[in-house]
Design a protein that fits this description.
Strands 5-4-3-6-7-9-8 form a seven-stranded mixed beta sheet, with helices on both faces. Among the domains are: about 1-190, Vaccinia Virus protein VP39 (Rossmann fold, 3-Layer(aba) Sandwich), CATH 3.40.50; about 205-355, no CATH class; about 575-745, Jelly Rolls, CATH 2.60.120. Helix 4 (about 125-135) links the parallel strand 6 and strand 7. By secondary structure, the protein is α+β, with helices and mostly antiparallel strands. Bound molecules: 2-oxoglutaric acid (AKG) and fe (ii) ion. 2-oxoglutaric acid (AKG) binds next to strand 26 and strand 28. InterPro entries: Methyltransf_16, Oxoglu/Fe-dep_dioxygenase_dom, Pro_4_hyd_alph, SAM-dependent_MTases_sf. One of its GO terms (cellular component) is cytosol. GO terms for molecular function: dioxygenase activity; iron ion binding; L-ascorbic acid binding; oxidoreductase activity, acting on paired donors, with incorporation or reduction of molecular oxygen. Its cofactor is L-ascorbate. This is Fe2OG dioxygenase domain-containing protein.
Length: about 750
């Protein structure tokens, strides 16, 4: 059947032929791309254009008509070529037709400046071959225009695009269609335009920008021009330099030997660089003063400065242009940091030069990096209620499934998160090395950054650091009066005060349970327990609440039992960092420790290890309360040894001490090898060595503030007691197996206990 199709006033005569399959007809997506071409003919002028999966040839023929200076090749599977040739004859223009099978043909027939493809990603089975063809055709400088129907194309397509070293941005779209521009990742970053400069330092780094070996510092690439270096690095990390070894986080090593030797890198992989890296030094020092949240803001601000982009400006007082508020905020912040007077110049200078080497100009609304997006999708970062809220609010097409809608929201966040533009999810918090810790957005209307904290786990103390900077988001949701969304946002940003306010007076078990958790995060463990008791009284059958209650009450408070304490325990302590760390050798009986390892291993053989305690990294542990004999032994150790030890270390009465949680942890090179830097959610923490040090190499508890490269470690039965707010990590176990008991405690001396 031959029909005349008119798009933007241009007529095409096309025969469609269903007998050759789905490509034998024209689709709305193609018409959308034609409309784009009609509006932007200059982008196609004098270009060599390749169309993939041309079908009837609609898009290619349209371009040839509207932009006669372009040369066009339309391609499709061999059995479509007859139809294509016929349509080329009907419409004329500088168009050739050829067979191109994405799966069979490894070669792209020629060199092209632009690739177009519409309605080619409608089925997951097409994603891999299509992306393969795009990657082959998308050489340096090439732009691909890909039109898709949103309800057909799943997130898998976007993942494959990114995995192929390509990047996408949404050029335009509506509820049904999306027109994407796809290019090599490097090309996207190569073209800074400064009307909106976006920063993506760490995410960028995760994708392979590095110029020196992470371990020995050897120059892998010449860093004079970082864009070139980045381009070359990406080539290197995709295999063309075979002597270079890439870690999954993007760090590069000059050899396998260096990669294997890089314990410090493993320990702090992703968020971490070397211990003497300016970023780590800067943040570690700030962590001392509990101003890490501000450090994130400062680093981002520095990153902005380092890009050399014009400072954001806004108009005030009837048109007087003032330097953006955030710059003055930055200096104010610097001024407020304890001790900044003497450290500002050096630390900030170091930081700036660090960031300068990595900062990236981006002008496009970029998608979330894959790590962040996966974290969203898997509910790690985005709480269920916020997911639901987003889907409810933004679901573009009522026929879409919720998952599908969420994919789109995450694939093209700028479309949905307006008017606050998402800039980057950052991995800048050294305390939680492997997790994105804040989202940074540029709020154009306000002329300032919005920094939102992302998770509420793995952190003790502090919190709420981003509160004052998230006003805009709050305002918007205030208008909505959607308590669930407000709550979700407050949870996302650690705004515990707000959570308490929003839940105040609610008596449901779920609300009481959440209030209990908030009290715990705040360090008010007694209140936490009280609220948990209220929750469990109302809902004794609720499995989560019951488990929390069981865990919270399974550890004994300190009670002197006569037969426990024949000889009072007086530990001999080695102290570090003004008593914030103490090591006690031989505190517990080695043989008993061995028996506990056997018990736990036996249990693990039956029900497996849990891997969910630390959310930033998979850990391998068993809660002490899950193994009755272990719990019994542990409670005795608490009364006779561990509480007295804490009393001696921190001068707090043993009777005031309570256990928040205790876990048996297993480290080995091929499972959980190490634990990134973090703070515990505890006032006082203990790591207890449960097996002989000769059983393994490496291992130990690493404290960056000690200022030495090696960790502290003890032989079986030894204990390291430390201030839970002190930054620390599990040093990599290189051989064998290391077992420890990790114990989190607090003293209720300040509270009524
Ligand atoms: O492996 C270690 O020594 C540290 C363990 C730790 O910090 C934890 O489990 O919270
Ligand atoms: Fe810890």
């Amino acid at each position: 059947m031959v029909t005349t199709t008119t798009i933007s006033g241009v007529d095409l005569e096309l025969r469609s032929d269903w007998s050759v399959g789905i490509g034998g007809s024209t689709w709305t997506c193609g018409e959308r791309l034609c409309e784009y071409v009609a509006r932007h003919p200059d982008e196609f002028r004098c270009r060599r254009i390749l169309e993939l999966g041309s079908g009837t040839g609609l898009v290619g023929l349209f371009i040839a008509k509207v932009v006669p200076e372009a040369s066009v090749m339309v391609t499709d599977l061999p059995d479509h070529v007859g139809l294509l040739e016929e349509n080329v004859k009907r419409n004329g223009g500088a168009v050739t037709a050829r067979a191109l099978d994405w799966e069979r043909d490894d070669e792209i027939p020629g060199a092209f400046d632009i690739v177009v493809a519409t309605e080619c990603a409608y089925h997951p089975r097409l994603h891999a071959p299509l992306v393969g063809a795009l990657a082959r055709a998308c050489g340096p400088g090439v732009r691909c225009f890909v039109g898709i129907t949103k309800s057909d194309t799943t997130l898998d397509f976007f993942d494959r695009v990114i995995s192929a070293g390509l990047e996408y941005r949404l050029l335009e779209g509506d509820s049904y269609f999306g027109l994407l521009e796809i290019r090599r990742q490097v090309d996207f970053y190569r073209e800074p335009r400064t009307e909106v400069v976006r920063l993506w330092t760490q995410c960028w780094e995760n994708r392979g920008e590095a110029v020196v070996c992470t371990q020995c510092g050897e120059d892998l690439l010449r860093p004079e021009d970082w864009v070139e270096a980045a381009a070359a690095t990406i080539e290197a990390s995709t295999g063309s330099r075979d002597d270079v070894v890439a870690c999954a986080c993007g760090a590069l090593f000059c050899s396998e030997a260096c990669r294997k030797g890089a314990d410090m890198h493993r320990l702090l992989c992703v968020g971490h660089r070397d211990a003497d890296d300016p970023l780590v030094r800067f943040k570690t020092r700030l962590a001392d003063d509990d101003v890490v949240e501000d450090a994130d803001t400062l680093i981002l601000a520095a990153a902005w400065l380092a890009t050399g982009a014009p400072w954001p400006r806004h108009h005030e007082n009837g048109g007087v242009v003032v330097v953006s508020a955030w710059v003055s905020e930055l200096w104010k912040l610097l001024g407020e940091l304890p001790g900044t007077a003497h450290r500002t110049a050096t630390d900030f200078g170091e930081l700036l030069s660090f960031v300068r080497s990595r900062a990236v100009h981006l002008e496009r609304p970029h998608p979330l990096c894959r790590v962040c997006r996966d974290a969203y999708l898997h509910g790690e970062i985005l709480p269920e209620s916020l997911r639901e809220g987003l889907v409810r609010k933004y679901k573009p097409d009522p026929d879409m499934t919720d998952d599908h809608a969420l994919s789109w929201i995450l694939a093209a966040p700028d479309e949905f998160f307006e008017p606050v533009r998402l800039v980057a999810l950052c991995f800048l918090d050294v305390r939680r090395a492997a997790t994105p810790t804040c989202a940074v957005a540029w709020a154009p209307a306000e002329g300032r950054f919005v920094v939102a904290r992302l998770d509420d786990r793995c952190v003790g103390g502090g919190g709420g650091g981003g509160n004052e900077t998230v006003g805009r988001i709050e305002e918007e949701e205030e208008e909505e009066k959607d308590v669930e969304l407000l709550l979700a946002r407050a949870r996302l940003e650690d705004r515990w005060d707000d959570i308490e306010e929003l839940l105040a007076g609610q008596e449901s078990p779920a609300a009481l349970y959440e209030l209990s958790r908030v009290a715990g995060w705040r360090g008010d463990w007694n209140l936490a327990l009280e609220r948990l008791r209220d929750a469990v009284e109302r809902a004794p059958e609720d499995p989560t609440i019951a488990a929390a209650w069981k865990s919270a009450t399974s550890f004994f408070p300190y009670v002197l039992r006569e037969d426990d304490v024949k000889i009072p325990f007086v530990p001999s302590l080695e102290r570090y960092l003004d008593g914030r760390i103490a090591v006690a050798k031989n505190a517990l009986d080695a043989e008993a420790c061995g028996r506990m390892v056997a018990l736990v291993e036996a249990r693990a053989r039956a029900v497996g290890w849990s891997t969910s305690r630390h959310y930033s990294v998979p850990t391998t542990d068993v809660p002490v309360g899950d193994v009755p004999e272990l719990l019994d032994w542990f409670n005795t150790q608490l009364a006779t040894r561990l509480f007295p030890l804490l009393e001696a270390t921190f001068q707090v009465p043993a009777a005031s001490l309570r256990v928040i949680d205790a876990f048996f942890v297993k480290y080995s090179p091929d499972a959980q090898r190490d634990l990134p830097l973090h703070e515990d959610q505890a006032q006082y923490s203990l790591t207890i060595a449960m097996n002989p040090a000769v059983d393994y190499e490496g291992g130990g508890t690493y404290f960056p503030h000690l200022g030495r490269p090696e960790p502290l470690n003890v032989d079986v039965g030894g204990v390291i007691a430390f201030d839970g707010a002190l930054l620390h990590g599990g040093y990599p176990t290189r051989r064998g197996t290391r077992y420890i008991l990790a114990v989190f405690t607090h003293s209720c001396i300040e509270e009524e206990c």
